[in-house]
Amino acid sequence: AVVSTQSTGEKREEDNNNTNTERLNAIWSKKQVAKDAKFKKMRTENIKALRKLAAEREKVEGKLSRRNVVSDYSSFASQVYAPQTRVGVFLDRGSELYNVKNRYLNTYEGLLELENSLPDCVTQPRIKLPTLVAGKGGAKKRFEKRLKELDDTAELIKLEKEKQFEVPAPPRFLQKVVRPPPRPPTPSVETPSEEDEKRELAVIFLQQLLRGRAVQNMMQEGKEKRMELIDELRSTESLKPEEDKKIKESKKAARGVQRKQRMMHHKESLANEMLEGMGGKNIGQMADFLSKELVRLQEEQRIHAFALLAERKRRMREAEESGKRQVEERRRMEEDEIWRQMCNCHQGTMETYLEDIIVRSVDKTADEQARQEIQTKAEQINEIAYEMESKRDRLQSENMVAELVYSFLLPEVEKETLRENVKREQRRHILAAHSVIHAQTPDIEKEGGSSKK
Q1: Confidence band, pLDDT 50/70/90 cuts, at residue 39
Q2: Per-residue model confidence (pLDDT) at position 31
Q3: What number of CA atoms fall less than 13 Å from residue 47's CA on the CB side?
Q4: Could you give the CA distance from residue 5 to residue 1 in angstroms, rounded to a whole number?
């Protein structure tokens, strides 16, 4: 009964250990799958982040590269031939428009109609086997070789099909739990009567008495046979009481020393355990502190890197804004200068226009007044001339003609000399103005080129 209970207990422990190991293997496999999925997700996120950083790094300086059409169409891996879905191009979009929709293929009635329209040679093929002529010709050999190849291929196909239906090997951590077979029913014995039981107990008691008595007789016989040896041993034992005492005392001393050593070893083990516990605690705290410090330093470096990137972006934007502001201020100054020049030009044209009008009006009025005065003077001169003509003689007329010729020729010569002097003065001023303008032309061209840049 004790052996059976012990075996059942061991079996139960074995079953529990097996179930625990299977459970641990299942949990481990689930954790492994979760870890792989997490690593895969981290890798994809890392690849996305690297792609974004690479794209931003290309546009850091604000230099946009122009598209090279020749390289795009010469490379079959470009966006022209193989566009990426993450860019926004879906190649399969609208593919249902190209699906073939045929009544003969999509409906059962269409299939029946198509089958009826086909000739009999298509649905019922007739194959004629070639007749082989007996002899040593090459056709028979080729036919046998072809049959052998077909048999080999059929054998290979059969082996492949059998391999498909083979039971795969069980995985490492997933094993089927084999239930133990049910226990057989406990055998039952018919209960004997009280008289038979008492008789059986009496027989068993008699057997025990007889066996005990036989053992006693055997021991008595052996004692009588070896009586001399027993007497000799008793005599030697009586001669060694002092040695026994010494041995007992030495054993007691050795036990005391062993006890002390065990106590010392126990104390040392306790002290070592306490020291190891304190050391482990300190080391754990130090490792925790160092790990936290490492995480803090990594976060600080990451934040510092983000701050540097933000500072760089801010400086770049400030530089762009300052450049734009300078361009706008230069453009505003140019527009103001253009407006000023236009206003000056309009004002100058207005002044010249008014001056022309005033000069024309003055000339017109002066012309009219001069004509009136000339007419009055001409009338007076005519009257005087008529009077003098009536009174003068030939000598006076010749003197008058000479005075008229003198008054007509000399003013014209003075006018011509005056005009030449004015032209000479104007030419000198014009040459000075031309030299000044030609000297300032390169500076104006340089300022115009810098403003355009």
Answers
A1: very high
A2: 92
A3: 5
A4: 6
| Contacts of residue 177, Cβ cutoff 8 Å, sequence gap at least 6 | 18, 19, 22
Cβ neighbours of residue 25 closer than 8 Å, sequence gap 6 or more: 172, 173, 174, 175
Residues across the chain: 453
Amino acid residing at 316: M
Number of H helices, E strands in the chain: 10, 0
Contact between 177 and 19 under an 8 Å Cβ cutoff? The reply is yes
- What is the dihedral angle through the alpha carbons of 213, 216, 218, 219, rounded to the nearest 10 degrees? 180
pLDDT single digits (tens) 284-313: 788 888 888 888 888 888 888 888 888 888
- Residue found by looking up tokens 């084999």 in the block: 178
Cα separation of 437 and 431, whole Å? 10
How many Å apart are CA 223 and CA 234, to the nearest integer? 14
**Could you tell me the CA-to-CA distances from 362 to 6, 62, 288 in Å, in that order?**
148, 67, 107
Residue 81 has pLDDT above 70, yes or no: yes
Query: What whole-number distance in Å separates Cα of residue 156 and Cα of residue 160?
Result: 6
DSSP state of 182: P
- Return the structure tokens found at 138: 């090459």
Q: Measured on CA atoms in the order 311, 313, 316, 318, is the torsion positive or negative?
A: negative
- Token pair listed for 237: 């034992």
* Other beta carbons within 10 Å of 427: 10
> pLDDT tens digit string along 340-381?
888 888 887 877 777 788 888 888 887 888 788 878 877 877
Query: Is-above-0.70 flag for pTM?
Result: no
pLDDT at residue 38, rounded to an integer? 93
Q: What is the DSSP string of 321-387?
A: HHHHHHHHHHHHHHHHHHHHHHHHHHHHHHHHHHHHHHHHHHHHHHHHHHHHHHHHHHHHHHHHHHH
